């Protein structure tokens, strides 16, 4: 019965994520902002809400390692999605087709992951009020990163010359915003139930909270990113797809900072097990590989597969094997 519930909630999330991609595209066209900026800000924030909700629930239930595993593990799975899209779409070199401006997003994402890993190791006891200085730095870094991306982005000019006739058949901005908000709300409502069923499945299997957070829960909460990315790729909106994945990794690190605001007793970064450094580093390596793939524009292939996409897939599989062998924070 629990597996039936899991599949039911997953189906709802798939539907919501597809709608997110469709309405995000409408907003991108109607606001003339372009797919890249919408992918980084709107799409990434909305599709990363499940991770944030999982973190809130995990903290309230006294299992911070589940929250940490979810965030760091989600970073890995997001980059796995990027690699999978490269393998599935053999004829379309996704990382070659998107704007090189994603390099800035990728670099800022790497910076935030580095901060998070450093803070877990540093175990700082400095705080302002009940919030640790490390979490405050993460929060302000995310805000600064969005401002830098917005200032650097020139995507407004990509479709600025579009005439009203070009919008024929495209829903209005109001309809796009309403649809986007309703799809996001549905994710917020359904995701806690999906996470609950995942936790129950984990309990039945006897796996630890840290390992489950890094694997099962991270994959489950990343389903919106996966489906939204697939939908965006099918629509040909590659900038939105890649921006969503890089932006989601940034938002995950931002969520670590929010976790400390929610956790009024103790400092969140200080209670995370050092074992998660491995998971964080794997996510960092995979994000760096995605950045290299965006910048390098490699033309050589391994048989019919792109080297960068294949590297992401292999790194994820080997990384999961290492995490299993180490028994992360069980």
UniProtKB/TrEMBL annotation:
GO biological process, one term: intracellular calcium ion homeostasis
Name of protein: Sodium/calcium exchanger membrane region domain-containing protein
Key words, A-Z: Membrane, Transmembrane, Transmembrane helix
Stored InterPro entries: K/Na/Ca-exchanger, NaCa_Exmemb, NCX_ion-bd_dom_sf
Bilayer disposition of the protein: Multi-pass membrane protein
Main location class: membrane
Stretches assigned to the Sodium/calcium exchanger membrane region domain: 3-148, 177-322
Record field: transmembrane: 6-24, 36-59, 71-90, 102-122, 128-149, 170-195, 201-223, 235-256, 276-296, 303-325
Keyword Transmembrane among record annotations: yes
Keyword Membrane belongs to the record: yes
Entry's Gene Ontology cellular component terms: plasma membrane
Subcellular location: Membrane
Molecular-function GO terms, alphabetical: calcium channel activity; calcium, potassium:sodium antiporter activity
